[in-house]
Amino acid sequence: MIxxxxxxxxxxxxxxxxxxxxxESEGAAKSAATGFVAAARRGNAGxxxxxxxxxxxxxxxNTSVHVDDILVADLDPGTYVTVKAAPGRHTVYxxxxxxxxxxxVEPGKRYYYRVGLVIGMWxxxxxxxxxxxxxxxxxxxxWKLKLARDVRQPSMLAR
Length: 159
Prior knowledge:
Blueprint: H1 2-42, E1 46-52, E2 63-67, E3 70-75, E4 79-85, E5 88-93, E6 101-105, E7 110-118, E8 125-131, H2 133-142, E9 146-147, E10 150-151
Parallel strand pairs: 1-7, 4-9
Antiparallel strand pairs: 1-4, 2-3, 2-5, 3-10, 5-6, 7-8
């Protein structure tokens, strides 16, 4: 009986601790996003578009998009998201933080990143590839991509 009560108490404390930490991280992400948006509005911002081609392969996998360590959106196949970014250096990555790329945003310019899938040991993950502006804008239009549904920071979106 004592063993059962101890197990229940440990489980309840684990749920309480994990609940607090996730709430704090969500608050920190909102705060960081607010600062990001304010900085983008102060200057003549640039735009960074992340897009993923549609198709059957990897259809069950969502790939995340992060800007300056802020989770912006999860991309399903055939979706895109465009972020308004203040001029200056920013970091971007998809699912793996150790595959971070740097982008130097200039006022009024557009940048495109195609999200590809990399096969992993247990599951695949997204990987960003910077694409020329002409090619990126053509692919977004030709592939008839839709705006991502799972946007985590709507205030960061350009449109």
